[in-house]
Amino acid sequence: MIPRVLAAPAPGWTARTDVVVIGSGIAGLVAALRCRPYGRVLLVTKALLDAGSTRWAQGGIAAALAADDTPDDHLADTLTAGVGLCDEDAVRALVTEGPQAVRRLIALGAEFDRSADGGIALAREGGHHRSRIAHAGGDATGAEISRALLAALKDAGIEVIEHALVLDLLRDGAGRAAGITLHVMGEGQPGGVGAVRAGAVVLATGGLGQVFSATTNPEVSTGDGVALALRAGAEVADLEFVQFHPTVLWLGDGARGQQPLISEAVRGEGAHLVDRSGERFMPARHDLAELAPATSSRRGS
Question: Considering the entire predicted model, what is its pTM?
C-alpha cells in the first residue's frame, strides 16, 4: 500500500500562485513560459535551474525542417527505430509539432548552427533517412536551449524557488490538484517545509535513471515526481522504459552515479566505436537505425 503523504513537518509558510511548475528542464521551462500570459507562475526545482537533463542533450534536436522532409517521413523513421514499442499517437504529435517548436525556440533566442546560405545546418544521425538534426554550438545543443529558455524565464518575470524538494500534492475537497508541499533546502528561500497553493500544477520532473548504480542521467534524476504522482493516486505507465544514452565513456567496474556520455553527433559524423584493445567493432553509419532511436519518443523515455 502506497502512503498518500510523506512523513514531514507541517508547512511553516504558504505561498499562492495561479500555476506551479515542478521541474526546470526544457519541459518545465516551456510550460512555465506558455502559462505566464494567463497569470502568476511559480517554478520550483530540486537543485539549480540548469541541473537537469536538458543541458546534457548534446546530439541535437530532430525536426522535419528541410524542404525535402516531411513529418510523415520523420514518423516512419521513428516507428522503424522504435521496433514496435512506440506510442504512435505520441510520435505523431512530436513529429507534427516539432518544426514549429524549434521555430519557437529560435524566436526565444536559441541560436542554432547555420549553413553557408544562412539556413539551419541539418545533419543526419542514426535512424534518420533525411538530414533533420539541428545542432547548436556543435554538441552543445541542450546547453544552448537551456540558456535561451532561462533568459526568457527571467524576462517573463516568472518566480523561481531553487533547492526545493517537492514532497506531496495538495488536493481540494473534490480531489483535484490544489498545490504542493515542498522542502526548501540550503540556499533556497524561503526555508524549510512550506506549501504552495495553486489553481494548476504542472509535473515536469524528469526521469529516474539514478535508481541504477551507474547511468548517463544526471544526479537529480531520482524519480521524485513519479513517486509524488503515485502517492497522489495518479496512473503511471511504461516505467520500465528508462532512457540511457547509447554510448558512454567507460570508467571501470567501480564506476557509480552519472557517467560521461559520448555525443550522438560523433556517430552521426561517421565515427567508429572501439573496444579497449583498439579494435573497431561497430561502424556508426547513418543507415544503422539500431545505433540510436530517431527521437526520444519511446513511451516513458
Answer: 0.81
